Amino acid sequence: MNAPAVGLTGGASPLDTRLQRELDSFRAADLYRVRRIVEGTHGVALTVDGRACISFCSNDYLGLASDPRVAAAAQRTLGSSGTGSGAAALVSGYNREHAQLEEELADYTGRARALLFTSGWAANLGTLRALFGKADALLCDELNHASLIDGARLAGARYIRVPHADTGGYAAALADAQAQGGEVGIVSDSVFSMDGDEADVPVLAALARQHGATLVIDDAHGLGVTDGGAMALADVYIATLGKSLGAAGAFVAGSEALIEFLIQRARTWVFSTAPPPAIAAAARAALRIIRSEPEHPLRLQANIARFRRGIEALGSGLPFRLSPSTTPIQPLIVGPAGPAVALSRALLARGYWVAAIRPPTVPAGTSRLRVTLSAAHTDAQIDGLVAALADASADAA
Ligand SMILES: *Cc1c(COP(=O)(O)O)cnc(C)c1O
Fold this sequence. Notes:
Aspartate Aminotransferase, domain 1, Aspartate Aminotransferase, domain 2, four-stranded mixed β-sheet, about 15% strand, globular, binds pyridoxal-5'-phosphate
């Protein structure tokens, strides 16, 4: 006779007992995470958990996720091409919309070719695993995105953690890595997702060239927003379509040989269903807007400056510290997790949605409100957030 399945016949299974113990510890440390439900579009003015508010926590930096022209392009393609692509691109899932988007992304980035992935995670895991292996070394900024960290680990290469934005650290690690033989890769975010500061891509490119290393840059938060040089200088340029382009997915751009190699060997691409053609159509429409309407990034820069002026004018004695970021990611560093969460809640009660970011996403003791600005924010909305921050801080004191 088979043993009874304890978990199914009542009583907690060993798995659930273990998980519940861990969940309780997350809660006790103010690290428990929950989702909030948005109704309708994910624009600047939205409805979350049934209440209207102004969002300052999206990566939709240019407001294109709710642009009617982008939605209309997706709708037209849904009408002509249906929903799913039905198979991986190497089988039968490769649609004319995908091919055209890849051509347009190659043209936009000034590269020979581009290859469309289902997500930034898939692009980073698949690319690093395909290009590097056990004999190689990867030099990675310590604040790199989780998908770059996991991609480097999956590649099986020697993982060399470089202190944040320390170009001297790269130089030393490069000499070291080269002495051991194998290929060497430099892997970095362009704009760091939780701090908003930027890697010095021109210096990294010069170091890579000098040492015969390969430069891999993830420009998820830079594409369409800031040009830190990654498009022109990275050997392997990776960016997502779900942030400033308001769609979903990601792409790698680079040489003919790079893209052909990824088509043969990037497992997250080879063995994954191609994205819906309608999503490619949405990204194409968004890219057309980015290329023809330079006013959106200009407006975004003005909004960033307005927010910073507003916070600076509040003076001292605040329970947070403004970071020296010039990108749309403007973290307000609080420190401990509990007060960061309390401040986020107090803002939501005042109609402003700003996410509290806690460990393990950021180092312990650096919990923060991650304010992100969009070209779609109005002056009044930005001034309103600053006033609400002042108000909520006075309550917290
Ligand atoms: C968001 C993000 C990713 C992941 O992209 P998805 O398309 O959301 O999977 C990768 N890298 C960086 C730097 C990101 O910010």
